[in-house]
Amino acid sequence: MLLARLISRIRKILLKYQSVPVHLWLDSSVSLAWIRGQPSQWAEFVANRVAVIQEHVPDAKWHHVAGTDNPADCASRGLLPLQLLNHELWWHGPAWLKQPSVMWPTTVPALDVTVDLEHRRSRCTMINIALKSTWDLIDRYSQLNRLLRITAWLKRCVSRFRSNPHPSNPHALTPEEIHESLLFWIKETQSRYFANELHAVSKGTPLPRSNPLSKLTPILGQDGILRVGGRLNHSLLDPDAKHPAILPRECSFSRLVISDVHHRTLHGGVQLMLATLRRQYWILGGRSPISSFVRRCVRCSRYRAVAARELMGQLPSSRVTPARPFLNSGVDYAGPFTLRTWRGRSARQYKSYLVVFVCFSSSAIHLELATDYTTQGFLAAYKRFTGHRGLCQTITSDCGTNLVGANAELRRMFSAASKELADLAHVLAADGTAWKFNPPGAPHFGGKWEAAVKSTKFHLRRIIGDAVLTYEEFNTLLTQIEAVLNSRPLCALSEDPDDLDVLTPAHFLIGAPLAVVPEPILIDVPVSRLSRWQLLRQFIDRFWKRWSAEYLHHLQTRNKWHQPERNVKTGDLVLVVDERTPPSKWPLARVIAVHPGADGLVRVVSVRTSTSTYKRPITKLCPLYVS
Fold it and tell me: Which residues form a coiled coil (predicted)?
């Protein structure tokens, strides 16, 4: 670069030698490659200096000189005065320089491949030019009023940029500007969805009968908008109500219009919204797009509170398989009930609880009275139950919050993580009994024992009333109610007057109904013990045969939930139903896991709210289908 500046300065002084060719030499092949190349391909430091060199001597011819023939090396390496005095290279240059230019050396040493020439990193820039339509603007906003205001401001700016002779208004938007924006979007929508219809109506060509607009007799208004022709020209309605603007069923602008009407009618219903819309617009499809929007409204979904449902599942094998009574049982608590220590006036009153056991196969009921809500109290009732009915293979109950009539202590004892349940499970495991729980918040999973509790309370209320009984009196009453409940027919009576013997749960307990008058004792026919045993087994087999023929078929039909519904999926937004609070307070939740049954249908899911994670049946959830 110093050489280039020196030559540039000398040429400015010697003006008459401006046309003389300039030959410059350097002994660095790397520098020579830099100078001969374009500055843009080198790194920034090298590129700046190469650009300066080429600017000072643009027409110079650069050559390579060996280091031994370069006079500049004498100065850079240094010479003694005696050496400098007679140094031929310093004073006269290389010998070949005195010869014609054709005799000058032209070879340039090959560059070492390991030498870095400081190349600039290549960058590839791709430019994609796309013309954005106005529909990108309409998809940015969820409110019609905001879209119209933004459009009005843009139209005002465009007028200023086009040097409109009318002065621009620096103040707030006027109603006329908002109305012009509305007409602009109506025209844009119609030109996109009704281009053929607009062309036909403008030419006076009738539309074919298959066209959905043919029944509306469309006309082209003075503002260039496609409107309903109709038959109300002589009515007293407003012009917009006589000839409303036609809009397609599914488009962004129609959704904004429906949303605006929905909020202006204070989340009104379908009929109110349709009547309001028809005063200015005619959206194809009538009620259907409005109903679809209302179903997706989150606030309306809260108060509509339509819980999810699914096809009623199959009965478990313990309900439809013959087995010993109470081999598979369900248990539930009821109460509390007030008892007294004795029948005197000064008797102390205390609370007691009813423990209801239900047989899954025979629907037999066993009632026990527990004097407290401790683990020991339940174990005592359980031991009395197994002492009368035998050990159970499985016991099923609701999860804590669903225990009918139980207080907080009972809920805590039956919760899945309580220490008391661990003690109960340990005792039951020693007897070979497994305790199973229904999902939390799903009382309909335990309809068997819920019905037993309801039937027991039905008789208790009518017999006791406001009276306070002693333990002995109350326990005696429970035994009588148990006998009555176990003597109920398992299925409806037939219309045959000769068919008086109905199948009851008591048939599986003692071979006959409990609440009947005892028959007189007959003289036994002398038969062998084996024959008598075979006769008893024949009676029991006959009861199970009648159970399979008469009772089991009544379980075949579904009283509700007849059709499979859309499965609740992971990621769905739902409302968690809470009967203690109004729908506006129900928490929003997201489904994080589904627990399908054996048939692949989802009836239980896990949801996450803002505070915790729960496992709930779908009947306690209200899906929000807000796409």
Answer: none
Sequence-distant (6+) residues with CB within 8 A of 249 are: 283, 284, 285, 288, 289
CA dihedral 320→323→326→331, nearest 10 degrees, is -30
Strand residues in 315-474 grouped as ranges (E)? 328-340, 349-359, 365-370, 394-397, 434-437, 469-470
HSE of 583, CA atoms in CB hemisphere, 13 A: 15
CA-CA distance, 439 to 422, in Å (whole number)? Answer: 18
pLDDT in tens, 161-205: 776 555 555 678 888 889 999 999 999 998 989 888 888 888 888
562-596 in b/e form (b: 16+ CB < 10 A) is eeeeebbeeebbbbbbeeeeeeeebbebebeebee
Tell me which residue of 503, 481, 471, 501 sits closest to 490, measured CA to CA: 503
The C-alpha atoms of residue 596 and residue 574 are separated, in whole angstroms, by 18
Q: Which of 375, 445, 385 is nearest to 414 (CA)?
A: 375
Other beta carbons less than 10 A from residue 428's beta carbon: 19
Tell me the C-alpha distance between 113 and 437, whole Å.
Answer: 78
The tokens describing 567, both together, are 């499965």
Contacts of 298 (CB under 8 A, 6+ apart): 624, 626
- Distance, in Å, from the CA atom of 328 to the CA atom of 40, rounded to the nearest integer, reads 88
Q: Could you give the CA distance from residue 445 to residue 585 in angstroms, rounded to a whole number?
A: 26
Mean pLDDT, rounded, of the chain = 78
Question: CA-CA distances (angstroms) from residue 517 to 505, 512, 513, 514?
Answer: 17, 11, 9, 9
Q: Which of 134, 139, 225, 135 is nearest to 179 (CA)?
A: 225
Helix or strand (DSSP H, E) at 123: none
Most confident of 17-31, 394-408, 486-500: 17-31
Q: Residue 169: left (phi > 0), alpha (psi -120 to 50), or beta?
A: beta
Taking residue 333's Cβ as centre, other Cβ atoms within 10 Å add up to 26
Residue 437 backbone dihedrals phi, psi, to 5 degrees: -120, 140
Cα angle 489-491-496, degrees, rounded to a multiple of 5 = 90
CB contact at 8 A, 473 and 463: no
Classify the C-alpha dihedral 235-236-240-241 as positive or negative.
negative
What distance in Å separates the CA atoms of residue 349 and residue 336, rounded to the nearest whole number?
12
The answer to whether domain 318-555 has CATH 3.10.28.20 is no
Query: Mutual orientation of helices 287-296 and 270-277 as an angle, nearest 10°?
Result: 130
Q: Specify whether the CB–CB gap between 200 and 211 falls below 8 A.
A: no
Closest alpha carbon to 292 in 337, 245, 259, 317: 259
Q: Rg of the chain's alpha carbons, rounded to an integer?
A: 49
**Beta-ladder partners of 349:** 340
Tokens of 20: 């003389």
Q: Which is more confidently placed, 542 or 386? A: 386
Using omega within 30 degrees of 0 as the cis cutoff, is the peptide bond preceding 336 cis?
A: yes
Name which of 618, 569, 623, 614 is nearest 444 in CA terms: 618
Q: What is the mean predicted confidence (pLDDT) over 114-118?
A: 56
Residue at token pair 């299925």: 491
pTM comes to 0.53
| Burial degree of 262 (CB within 10 A; 0-12, 13-18, 19+) | buried
The torsion angles phi and psi of 341, rounded to 5 degrees, stand at -70, -35
Cβ burial, residue 205 (10 Å; 0-12/13-18/19+): exposed
Please list the residue range(s) of the chain that carry CATH number 3.30.420.10: 318-555
